[in-house]
Amino acid sequence: MAPMGIRLSPLGIGVFCLLGLGVLYHVYSGFLTWRFSSFLLGERAGDMVDLRELLAAAVRAAELGGEEVKAVRQSNKLNENSKGKTREGADEMLTQGDLLSNKKMANLIINSFPGVQVNSEEHLGEDDKEAIYWDRVVPNEIKEIVKSSKLVSSDSITVWIDPLDATAEYTENLINYVTTMVCVAVNGKPIIGVIHKPFTGYTAWAMVEGGSNTKKRASYNEKTPTIIVSRSHSGPVKELALQSFGNQTKIISAGGSGYKVLSLLDVTGNNQDSADVYIHNTYIKKWDICAGNAILNALGGEMTNLKGEDIIYTGSDGNEGGLLASIGLDHNTLVEKLSPKTSK
């Protein structure tokens, strides 16, 4: 018996082709609709987020926040007040610069990447919501350094925003200490960090296993390191540093955690102190330190608590164990020098 086959008349062929085109159109148009909605929402298939895109958005958010911070300071209308006391008893200042910067930075991230968790130092109320979006443009500088996209699930991401680091110094017009910062943590690990200095225009950014626009210095002094500490409660930290590293140790007091992390890097020409180790011995908020932690990790440095334990960027917004940050030095050796004093 001859094999059976299907023969189509010219009319049948035409109908089949039209049906095929219809199916293709339906599928393709649906794909375009999905892609367009993904474009608007900053999402990808399976609610995935491209970390390179999130880095670009974080840089833009820090810059926009910095514009607000600078404009308020230059207007001299800070509307400053205290929002409470720190654990050390100092006034925790809040200004118009904090609020307007937070409005720009938080709205840009929330609107552009609606699936991610955003934690910011300042509250974003219903009246503060603004239709501001990232423009979906990844700058060439980022493309040249971070060569490829990296997709992660949006529910694994926490974005930490500090809309104005060093507010106390900001009110005193010590503007060189002031930064705006964004950090992206994935499953609690700091992966993307952005530190922007509004009054110099300098921005440092990095992505772990992606690259950075900054770098570590050529050398560090391990024998007698220069230690940078907080100017707001420097006494106990200075005592700890001198006991651990000797009375000849040079101590720099400075404002702002972002500024202190930059002091460990090669940022010559940006009106920046230079130090070898950053120490903080009390409670500190995670939005103050996450961006610096990510940048140091990307460059081969470390930021831990004083016991050498990693800081996890989920859950509570505070880090209880103090802070030790270094790059280009043996971090474990630094922990060992500090441990007899911190364990008392």
From TrEMBL:
InterPro entries: CysQ/Inositol_MonoPase, Inositol_monophosphatase-like, Inositol_monophosphatase_CS. It is found in: Membrane. It is an enzyme of class 3 (hydrolase). It comes from Eleutherodactylus coqui (Puerto Rican coqui). GO terms for cellular component: Golgi apparatus; membrane. It comes from the Eukaryota. This is Inositol monophosphatase 3. Mg(2+) binds at E121, D162, L164, D165, D288. Pathway: Polyol metabolism; myo-inositol biosynthesis; myo-inositol from D-glucose 6-phosphate: step 2/2. Keywords: Hydrolase, Magnesium, Membrane, Metal-binding, Transmembrane, Transmembrane helix. Its EC number is 3.1.3.25. The lineage of its organism: Eukaryota, Metazoa, Chordata, Craniata, Vertebrata.
